[in-house]
UniProtKB/TrEMBL annotation:
Coiled coil: none annotated. Residues 112-123 have a biased composition (Polar residues). Keywords: Signal. InterPro entries: SAM-dependent_MTases_sf (IPR029063). This is Methyltransferase domain-containing protein. Residues 1-22 form the signal peptide. It comes from Entomoneis paludosa. It comes from the Eukaryota. Residues 112-132 are annotated as: Disordered.
Amino acid sequence: MNRYRFTLRFFGVLLSLRYCTGFSQNAAPPANQEIAESFNNGHRKRDNQRVKPIPYVATSSTIEHGKALSDYIQKGDRVLELGTQLDASSDTILKAIGHEGHAVLVDVQRTDTNSGRSSQGTRNVEKFSSEASKGDQKNYDYVEIEQFQKWKTILDQYASSTDESFDIFVLDATAMLGNDLELTTLSVIMEFVTEMVTRRGTRPRAVLVKSKAMTSLSRRLVHAQRLFDGSTTVDLKSPSRDGRPYIVAGVGVEEYRRTIPHVMQNGDRALEVGCFSGTTTALVHEAAQPRGYCIGVDIGPKIIERAKREHPDMHFAVGDGRKSLELLRIQQASNQSAEQSRVSPLDGYDVVYADIGGLSGPDGTLES
């Protein structure tokens, strides 16, 4: 797959991760400053009757993470840090919230390794407590939990009501989860936000996550509107620097289809997951002509029958979008792809369009 790209249509809220970005050592990009300012006067305000999405800010290094903490955390904030190392990042949090704020610093209990050394890394609880409390009233609690899965007990203890909600959620993915995987990290973030909204009736102002995987994802994620107004310089018809797919996120059928000329080119091998009656599939197919094609896939047999009736010259198949091998076999079975493509039909797809509207979930983020 030489030019691997995803275009996603979301049924509900825009993917909040579109706000993720890396920070330079000197200053945050203007977009981050605007987001921070928009939340300064209260994160529950409405703009045009819509609640503003929560910014998920991803950083990949300690320096970037510290810069993000300084830019987003305000005096008086209540902050939850999962995966604390009681290091410079924790110190930055305490200085930013001041005497009026409170931080809950959480990590998993560390056990002795086979070598006899403690696996707690650089954490020194006594030293940190001594230095953080010099001349000041203690403005934090340090909590160790037996295992990562019990992190929600912290919410029951420290955020049991709206008055005790957290303004900022900080997560060190590797330190807390033991890995740095996109879906695992994103799942934890969304669980936290859901817990705060559904059980406590409040939302964090921002989520700050230290994760190389999430930073990579944020750099490849493009808001459809930025394609239309020319505010992004990303060339979606060329490979990304790391060879991983760009992801274009939009809301509604109109945005979804308007991305086609920005993404497709002659010769592309395309797939639409959740094709329904095949209208978008046909538009993508036309944009890939004369050397390329688009195959439509949907999980409903009756839906595929309808698509075949309305577009008899195109290829549609029943399939599950979550099973990549099945999608490759559909491509192999397509006489159309074998005839029109000058490469092996097993080489995969250059572009994948995915209509997430029919999937379960509040906004289709994890399904996407």
